[in-house]
Amino acid sequence: MSELKNDRFLRALLRQPVDRTPIWMMRQAGRYLPEYKATRAQAGDFMSLCKNHELACEVTIQPLERYPLDAAILFSDILTIPDAMGLGLYFETGEGPRFKKVLRTEKDVADLPVANTEADLDYVLKAVSTIRRELNGRVPLIGFSGSPWTLATYMVEGGSSKDFRHVKAMMYDTPEIMHELLNKLALSVIDYLNAQIKAGAQAVQIFDTWGGTLSDVCYREFSLAYMKKIVDGLIREHDGQKIPVILFTKGGGQWLEAMAATGADALGLDWTTDIGSARARVGGTVALQGNMDPSVLYASPQTIRKEVKRILDSFGKGSGHVFNLGHGIHQFVDPEHAKAFVEAVTELSPEYHL
Asked: What is the rounded CA–CA span in Å between residue 16 and residue 50?
């Protein structure tokens, strides 16, 4: 494969020296971009876009054409794994993801197969290899998956949830059934991410979107333990290159020390944690990714620049910081404001690396 022309994202994840702070945005290929909307319309719907490796490649690269980003992230969805396990994923307009089949009983979980990536998610692997080829060493490619707990919430609830009543009832009432489900999901995620790495992903991120809804004891038992199992099972070197692993628990600021102890290379932070205090707590062992509030992008370019400077000041000098939003970019953000954000990071950050 072609030589990597820009490796500052990978270097920062491994806390190696860089010339400036690298930047990418969660959901950088998405609905805020008019060109994305045009390609999605061409595909017909969201899942058709995910399953067409050439169009998935096209939308992955679109934000790189607009902004000087330091990484591309595979265009896909965290719910491809439950779909591959036979739950029948579909999307309702305005309602978000739904499953034709939900998991509510011991038998439902017992009958669930572990996902086979090669057999059932080959379209994702085709997208990874196509994107990697088209990037031609321009920037690294990030692969990703949802965490077992986050995937379980959708599979038990049948879609998005505000109160998580079914999944939390299962967790508290029948923890052995929940552990069986989470173990199957962890094995599926290990297979999925390792297949992405073999297909060309140069770093991987585990999105634990709903870990922050758990109590301290439940987070450690039902979310973090399974993310550690995944980290332990991942390919950490491929084609002579280290493959960094990023863990991101939204609302997970209180667990940073425990997350760092999993062996991950970097932790994603949402905007509720100060990045300077996070660095003081765990910066000696892991890199940090984040963590501007995505809503700042609704503000003026001057305000965006000021907030970028504040976060750079908070992290301080030296490597080990990947600039990002604290969650995905919102669909109603003006692309020019995203541009102001990326430009602020690229212009202001070199002085922190002298």
From this structure: 34
The residues near 159 (Cβ < 8 Å, ≥ 6 apart) are: 95, 96, 97, 98, 99
Residue 328 lies in a domain: yes
Q: What are the mean pLDDT values of the chain's consecutive 10-residue runs (354 residues total)?
A: 90 98 98 97 93 98 98 97 95 84 97 96 98 98 98 96 96 98 98 98 98 98 98 97 98 98 98 98 97 98 98 98 98 98 98 96
Is 326 part of any domain? yes
> Which residue, among 287, 299, 282, has the nearest Cα to 334 in the 3D structure?
299
Please count the residues of the chain: 354
* CATH number of 345's domain: 3.20.20.210
Q: Give the bridge partners for 91, in sequence order.
A: 97
Q: Catalogue the active-site residues.
A: 27, 31, 40, 77, 154
- Can you tell me whether residue 308 is helix, strand or coil? helix
For residue 201, give its domain range. Answer: 8-353
Instruction: Name the domain count of the chain.
Output: 1
